[in-house]
Amino acid sequence: MRRLSNILWLGVKELRSLAADPVLLLFMAYAFSLAIYSQATGLSYELRNASVAILDEDRSPLSARMRDALLPPYFKPPVEIAADAVDRAMDAGRFTFVLDIPPHFQRDLIAGHRPEIQVNIDATAMTQAGIGASYLQQILAQEIAAFFGGNTADPVALRMRTAFNPNSESSWFTGVMALINNVTMLAVLLAGAAVIREREHGTLDHLLVMPVTPLEIALAKLWSNGLVITLATGLSLWFVVHRAVGAPIAGSIPLFLAGTALYLFFATAIGLLLGTVARSMPQLGLLFILVVLPMNMLSGGNSPFESMPFALRVVMSAFASTHFVAFAQAILYRGAGLEIVWPQFLATGLIGAVVMAVALRRFRLAIAQAVG
Fold first, then answer.
1. What is the bridge-based pairing of β-strands 97-101 and 52-56?
2. pLDDT per residue over 240-264, tens digit each?
3. Separation CA 310–CA 74 (nearest Å)
4. Phi and psi (nearest 5°) for 205?
5. Is 55 helix (H, G, I), strand (E, B) or coil?
6. Keywords, A to Z (predicted)?
7. pLDDT digits (tens, 9 = 90+) for 255-299
8. Beta 79-80 vs 97-101: how paired, if at all?
9. 11 near 137, Cβ under 8 Å?
10. Element (H or E) spanning 120, and its range?
């Protein structure tokens, strides 16, 4: 009971210390509100307002129909362009797409020939180039089929049904992924800053003369910072991701927060470990760039985990962040329950326990060096 009491009151001290740090509080408020909202609404992976020009050398009703089919919000109003201006416009980056409809296109199509439409694409606009090319192909094929009364339709009708995100709204995805990444970022920074703050303020020496052990000091820092991150995650998920961004939450929020709390054993232990290595906040920031940013980028949140090389997948499976992203997506997007995500919960807990043991050992050594 005495150990629990020490851990409790040392944790309360950490919360008071955090409350007295306006810079960290402002950073937390920004990271769990405006940063998530701006990333969800500002980074779009859909086709929006793509610039397109048309070199219409046919001047037929069909070519006019195809031009009129390129409508907002996918495309800006098409611009007529001359043949000698195409290369110059593409070099200047004025248009993402330039369609070249050849002479006698409609006549050759009616005659049963297979005329070609050239589509010039500026691939430096990578997202719009990839998605827009598919959109253009579908729109032009539909207009040609409609012009001929549907006689050019394929023999097989493909009907696609998009699950979990019917309108393919990228903000639903980026909002949740921004929240997940910020959980890791804040957990590492707060735990690491707590250790460095003790060293810089000289309060670590005060703790060493008190009847507390290094284990109690470390656990107090972990539970207090973990509590703050968990509460901030719940509020941000509901008010920012769900209410402000409009992303639906398919699964159980308590189950997600329980998994987040489990993951925070790993993330705060990483922060504690980095805090014992770094001697100042700038050093902690450099270590953060080397360790946490690659961990976030390769956890499966920014790109599909299955598309990575096999060796890299094996390495990243040893990090709890990968399993955190997996069960967070399963719960929040697909409404998965504990019976589905328990393997990820178990992996997160086991990895967190190992990292926690390493961090606590390192923290004891740092305390012993400080005493010596």
1. parallel
2. 999 999 999 999 999 999 999 999 9
3. 37
4. -65, -35
5. strand
6. Cell membrane, Membrane, Transmembrane, Transmembrane helix, Transport
7. 999 999 999 999 999 999 998 888 888 899 999 999 999 999 899
8. unpaired
9. no
10. strand 118-121
Backbone angles phi, psi at 55, to 5 degrees: -100, 95
Residues 6+ apart with CB under 8 A from 325: 177, 180, 299, 300, 301, 305
DSSP 336: -
End-to-end CA, the chain: 29
Q: Which helix (H) or strand (E) holds 14?
A: helix 2-19
Torsion, CA 220, CA 223, CA 229, CA 232, rounded to 10? -100
Between 3.30.70.2740, 3.40.50.300, 3.30.160.20, 3.40.1710.10, what CATH number should domain 52-148 receive? 3.40.1710.10
Ranges for all domains in the chain classified under CATH 3.40.1710.10: 52-148
Rounded to 5°, the CA angle 76-82-84 comes to 125
In angstroms, rounded to a whole number, what is the distance separating the alpha carbons of residues 248 and 360? 39
Q: Please tell me the distance from the alpha carbon of residue 320 to that of residue 325, in angstroms, as a whole number.
A: 9
The C-alpha angle 32, 37, 41, rounded to 5 degrees, equals 160
- Report residue 58 CA to chain centroid gap: 45
**Residue 280: per-residue pLDDT:** 87
Closest alpha carbon to 30 in 259, 256, 189 = 189
Alpha carbons 99 and 121: distance in angstroms, whole number: 9
Omega prior to 73 cis, within 30 of 0:
yes
Q: Record the tokens describing residue 344, joined without a space.
A: 């990820």
Query: Torsion over CA of 17, 23, 29 and 32, rounded to 10 degrees?
Result: -100
Is 159 in contact with 77 (CB distance < 8 Å)?
A: no
Angle at 221 between CA 220 and CA 225, to 5 degrees: 115
Tell me the helices (H) and strands (E) count for the chain, helix number first. Answer: 15, 4
| pTM metric for this prediction | 0.81
The DSSP annotation for 133-152 comes to HHHHHHHHHHHHHHHTTTTT
